[in-house]
Automatic annotation (TrEMBL):
<feature type="domain" description="DUF883">
    <location>
        <begin position="88"/>
        <end position="117"/>
    </location>
</feature>
<dbReference type="Pfam" id="PF19029">
    <property type="entry name" value="DUF883_C"/>
</dbReference>
<dbReference type="GO" id="GO:0043022">
    <property type="term" value="F:ribosome binding"/>
</dbReference>
<keyword id="KW-0175">Coiled coil</keyword>
<protein>
    <submittedName>
        <fullName>Membrane-anchored ribosome-binding protein, inhibits growth in stationary phase, ElaB/YqjD/DUF883 family</fullName>
    </submittedName>
</protein>
<feature type="coiled-coil region">
    <location>
        <begin position="23"/>
        <end position="76"/>
    </location>
</feature>
<feature type="region of interest" description="Disordered">
    <location>
        <begin position="1"/>
        <end position="23"/>
    </location>
</feature>
<dbReference type="InterPro" id="IPR043605">
    <property type="entry name" value="DUF883_C"/>
</dbReference>
<dbReference type="InterPro" id="IPR010279">
    <property type="entry name" value="YqjD/ElaB"/>
</dbReference>
């Protein structure tokens, strides 16, 4: 019986040692997992910041292109208006009577259209 008690005690000690070893292994694995998660979080954060900066830079570039294009279109429109004004002014200087007749006709038509309402 003394041998059985010694064997039971040895089994319990072995199981306790195995359990303690398993608990230490689990703690080590959890710590490693936490470190990996922290590193992954930092990597994802850095990646997100880089992509955000890339998107911002692309948007700024596109905005600058659109601004330049709009300014050019504005200058072109102004040049066309000045050219049209100069042509109209030249036509009025060449034929003042015709210009007055055309203006009177347009005024008459607009007057008719506005009184029909």
């Amino acid at each position: 019986m003394a041998q059985a008690a010694t064997a039971n005690g040895a089994d319990k000690a072995l199981k306790t040692a195995q359990t303690k070893g398993s608990a230490d292994d689990v703690r080590d694995q959890i710590a490693a997992l936490q470190a990996d998660m922290a590193e992954l979080t930092r990597a994802v954060s850095a990646y997100g910041k880089a992509k955000g900066e890339d998107a911002r830079a692309a948007a700024e570039l596109r905005a600058e292109e659109l601004k330049t294009r709009a300014e050019k279109m504005g200058r072109d429109a102004e040049a066309q208006l000045r050219s049209g004004y100069a042509q109209a002014e030249g036509a009025v200087r060449e034929n003042p009577a015709a210009a007055v007749g055309i203006a009177a006709g347009i005024g008459f038509v607009l007057g008719l259209l506005s009184t029909r309402r």
